[in-house]
């Protein structure tokens, strides 16, 4: 296989098309810092227990896929590059470069991955990929790319 090699993850029986799940997000909040206090449609993940607002809010963001993988070939771990795995239009227009995670996955109950509050949402490509919901309960999403050529009969340990 010639590089780049695309690495996907697959989820089975995960209903991203469930009505309450799909509606539990606020696109204005994701794209504009001035709308960070808007938590319309974010229930049940709009506020923390102590009343602080969550950015990004909603069930979709809260359930962000948090599995990690290590791919090893000849005792060398591949670097899985996560740059440019999301749609450019999503990065440039739907997720703000001035919007940063606030109060996200803080507290006793966590649903998914923790987001670094110093990196804007437009740079969190795994979040952007996850937020593009699917129509079917079994789906694959791009996890990253490997920039190494593989030869026939190479063995990769996951």
From TrEMBL:
Keyword field: Membrane, Transmembrane, Transmembrane helix
Descriptive protein name: ALA-interacting subunit
Annotated family: Belongs to the CDC50/LEM3 family.
Subcellular localization: Membrane
Membrane topology classification: Multi-pass membrane protein
One GO location term (cellular component): plasma membrane
First-listed, main subcellular location of the protein, grouped into a coarse class: membrane
Protein species of origin: Zea mays (Maize)
Record has Membrane as a keyword: yes
């Amino acid at each position: 296989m010639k590089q780049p090699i695309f690495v996907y993850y697959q989820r089975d029986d995960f209903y991203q098309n469930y009505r309450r799940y799909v509606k539990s997000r606020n696109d204005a909040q994701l794209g504009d810092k001035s709308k960070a206090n808007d938590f319309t449609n974010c229930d049940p993940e709009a506020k923390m227990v102590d009343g602080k607002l969550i950015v990004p809010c909603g069930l979709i963001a809260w359930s962000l896929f948090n599995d990690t993988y290590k791919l090893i070939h000849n005792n060398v771990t591949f670097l899985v590059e996560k740059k440019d795995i999301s749609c450019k239009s999503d990065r440039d227009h739907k997720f703000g470069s001035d919007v940063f995670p606030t109060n996200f996955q803080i507290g006793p109950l966590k649903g998914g991955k923790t987001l670094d509050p110093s990196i804007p949402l437009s740079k969190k490509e795994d979040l952007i990929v996850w937020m593009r919901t699917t129509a079917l309960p079994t789906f694959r999403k791009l996890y990253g790319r490997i920039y190494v050529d593989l030869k026939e009969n190479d063995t990769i340990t996951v």
